[in-house]
Amino acid sequence: MHEEMVELISHDIREGVYVIGDELPSERELMEEFGISRLTVREGVAALESRGLILTRQGMRARVAGPKPGFVLDRLSDMARLYLVDPKGLDAFMDVREIVEVGTARKAAKLADETAILRLQDVLERNSAARGDVAEFGRTDIEFHRVIADITGNPILVSFYQAAAEWLEEVRSTSLKVPGQTQRAFEAHEKIFAAIKARDTAAAGREMSEHLLQLASIYPPREPNDPSEPLH
After folding, report:
1. Residues 64-83: b if buried by 16+ CB within 10 A, e if exposed
2. What is the pTM of this model?
């Protein structure tokens, strides 16, 4: 019974009838407008909040929420983790990751100013110092990629990186235990940094692509004589 209320209010928010920060009508006003009970109104309000359209606080009217780029990605987290268990799902996700991260590296190379370069260099230096510590290397690895996203100034890209870092935790923790992988990853980071510092968009995209392809070559790990292992 609350669905009509949810759809009409959602439409009004999209059309600008309610703008960010506006209060919704009171519970009693919504009850009268839609001819529904107080409980049904509360179910509708909860549904609107679950969509990220409004914010509620105890004792106050619900207000229209501002856009939160990470909201959709947060809601997809459980589904994404389940999808990544399937090898085909992982392959599909890695394709998406390459498309996003290569484009992000190119954009960062175009937009990076001196402050951004210094920030990325600081992370790279800490990444170098962590090569003997898999856990710390993983943390600085995540930070290195996130700073590249930050440079673009695009909140959707930043949210994607934050979500991907959580979704790919098992991938990272497993791959970094492969002998020599922290050194290979660091060398890839060096090349990406050099390209961004030089404002070379083509090189930044190319080096990021090579980095991700190398990762894909070692994860998931293959057993000896695995027929899926590429022949050399």
Report:
1. bbeeebeeebeeeeeebeee
2. 0.69
